[in-house]
Amino acid sequence: MRYNELMLMREIMDYRPRNGGTILVSHTHPDRWKELIGTDTSYRDSLLRTLVEGATVINLQ
Question: Is 46 among the domain residues?
Answer without folding.
Answer: yes
